[in-house]
Design goal:
Blueprint lengths: L2 H18 L4 H6 L3 E6 L5 H4 L17 H13 L4 E7 H11 L3 H12 L2 E5 L2 H10 L8 E7 L1 E2 L3 E3 L13 E3 L11 E9 L8 H9 L5 E3 L2 E2 L7 E2 L4 E3 L2
Length: 241
């Protein structure tokens, strides 16, 4: 028997064992699926300084980076072999970096290097959809976890809120575009959550309708003032649509 034949027989035996245990060989090798974490960009201070102090956003540039980092650490503690991809809206950190006179994109990449995750810079909502659909071979590596850290309203994720235009966003993922996500991208028990404001008021329902997977979202506002933990503002609650 040749070495190639022995390897083939061993592989077939492994497949039979995994099937007997009720496990997909592909998913077993992949650790169950891919964890996708998305971070939007910060507002510019020149715009936010036009607001009253209690209404300002993103005084700190890392509002959507630190909680994503904490979540990555948590996932790796629970699943040391986790496949994690971190999608970050690059332009927001370039413009805020110029305003703060700091190389913020380098600080983002330092997080990537420290935790050894895959970093993908993106520019639009279509980039998010494209990554979910085709960023990995989804038949072998479906998405088992999707989380968003950033600005949002009840209808969309807003990646550059008050970064390009005061009080507005030109880079977003709207609930009307969620139908472009292919069915079968997610595992059946995928965990999805938006840590942004108001998602649970409409977008969570649209997400479930488009993907068949529930998304936990906030009814009301979320607060990133504590860099270690995103919390609901007073009167808010979580819902999965």
């Amino acid at each position: 028997m040749t070495a190639a034949s022995r390897r083939s027989d061993l592989y077939k035996a492994l497949v039979l064992i995994l099937l007997f245990l009720g496990l997909s060989p592909a998913l077993q090798a992949a650790g169950g699926g891919e964890y996708v974490i998305v971070s939007g960009g910060p507002a510019l201070r020149k715009w936010e300084n036009l607001r009253r102090p209690g209404e300002q956003h993103d005084r700190w540039w890392g509002n959507f980076i630190r909680p994503a980092r904490m979540r990555i650490q948590e996932i790796q503690a629970q699943d040391p072999g986790a496949v994690i991809t971190w999608l970050v809206y690059r332009k927001g950190f370039v413009t805020r970096g110029a305003e703060d006179r700091r190389a913020l994109t380098e600080l983002v990449t330092s997080v990537r290097d420290k935790f050894r995750v895959r970093l993908v810079w993106f520019e639009s909502g279509n980039d998010i959809i494209a990554y979910l659909n085709n960023g990995q071979p989804r038949g072998r590596l479906p998405v088992c976890n999707f989380e968003f850290f950033g600005h949002s309203n009840k209808f969309c994720f807003m990646f550059d809120y008050s970064n390009t235009i005061y009080g507005c966003s030109v880079a977003c993922l709207h609930e009307n575009d969620l139908g472009k996500i292919r069915r079968g991208v997610f595992t059946r028990d995928a965990f999805c959550k938006s840590w942004g404001c108001h998602t649970g008021e409409s977008m969570s329902k649209a997400w479930r309708k488009a993907t068949g997977i529930p998304m936990i979202g906030a009814y009301g506002k979320t607060d990133y003032a504590n860099p270690l933990k995103v919390v609901l503002s007073r009167g808010g609650h979580w819902t999965n649509g």
